[in-house]
Amino acid sequence: MLVGIDPVATENILDLVKTLTPQEQDAVREFIDCLKNKGRTTTSPFLAAIDEFIDQHPELLRRLAQ
């Protein structure tokens, strides 16, 4: 179960994720991992550069994801 989320909301999220393709489910998993790690400080210059690129170019990334 997800921490701090209503059990009904958790079931709705799980039901939605179950309808996704395996690749989409992997993307959701990666996104959740990213959110979990967001609060941690980035020590790698490469990861810091990636974070900066994501922050500066959200529209480009959104279009590429389509």
Task: Summarize the structure in words.
The chain is mostly helical. 73% of the residues lie in helices and 0% in strands. The chain contains 4 helices and no strands. It is extended. The N and C termini lie far apart (30 Å).
What tags apply to this protein structure?
extended, 73% helix
How many strand segments?
0
- Estimated radius of gyration: 15 Å
Number of domains: 1
Shape verdict: extended
**Biggest sheet details:** none
Could you give the order of the helices and strands? HHHH
Strand residue content: under 5%
Number of helices, where a helix is a run of at least 4 consecutive DSSP H or I residues:
4
Q: Assign a percent range to the helix content.
A: over 70%
| Average pLDDT for all residues | 79
Low-confidence stretches: none
Structural class: mainly alpha
End-to-end Cα distance, whole Å, is 30 Å
How is the secondary structure organized here?
Layout: H1 7-18, H2 22-37, H3 45-56, H4 58-65
Précis, in short:
This protein is mostly helical and 66 residues long.
